[in-house]
Design goal:
Length: 223
């Protein structure tokens, strides 16, 4: 398994989820999906903040919207499939604009992503600007589209249950390097240690033992 720069390990991750193309698997809910996506990313070494947005052309019930809100997933609705795709595309590109001065991770969950020329072009541009691309397909695409652009590829059912990426297309970021202590803290610690070492030791006072006077018993007079 190859590795990425450690800067992506602690970077923010934006997840953009095509809810219509990759629906929630049976037996799961938004809360479980959110937890499992974060678990899968954490197991791959991504420890930064994660935000998730879901897109659907269908109007969801109030109960479903409440479940997404509880899962901290931003649910967005548009009237048609094309409008929904356009909104998702714009949000992905604006993510790159909003984070242009920092490295980030961008995860796209989509059924037919590789068929959208705008998305493909946009992802290539994002990668060129310090963004690590992660892809999730509904099924195993076989030829792994955008292989040179994405560093890891999941099948949706695997990601939704906290699983690992596809074998052969799985790149883990290097763990962050611990920062060395600042010179000021080292100097302070060293100076304090020297002071303690050179500090004169206090002499304990000598204990003077006083001899106890023993009183002799006076014998009783004889009759």
């Amino acid at each position: 398994m190859s590795s990425l720069s450690s800067k992506f390990s602690v970077a923010k991750t934006g997840v953009f989820w095509d809810l219509d193309g990759c629906p929630i698997p049976a037996g799961l809910g938004p809360v479980a999906i959110s937890a499992n996506i974060k678990l899968a990313l954490e197991n791959m070494g991504y420890t930064g903040n994660i935000s998730i947005s879901a897109y659907s052309a269908e109007q969801q019930s109030q109960q479903v919207e409440s479940e997404f809100e509880s899962a901290h997933i931003k649910l967005q609705h548009r009237g048609t499939r094309q409008e929904t795709d356009n909104l998702m595309y714009l949000d992905v590109m604006f993510w790159g604009v909003d984070h242009k001065s920092e490295a980030t991770n961008v995860m796209l969950i989509s059924k037919h992503l590789y068929r959208n020329a705008d998305f493909v072009s946009g992802l290539v541009q994002l990668k060129e600007k310090e963004n690590n691309i992660l892809l999730v397909h509904l099924y195993n695409p076989g030829g792994l589209p955008l292989r040179d652009t994405a560093t890891s590829t999941w099948v949706w059912k695997s990601l939704a249950t906290g699983g690992t990426p596809l074998v052969g297309h799985c790149t883990r970021p290097q763990p962050p390097t611990p920062s060395p202590p600042s010179p000021c803290s080292v100097r302070t610690t060293t100076t304090r240690a020297l002071r303690l070492a050179n500090k004169p030791k206090k002499r304990l006072p000598k204990l003077r033992l006083k001899r106890r006077k023993t009183s002799r018993a006076i014998p009783a007079p004889e009759d």
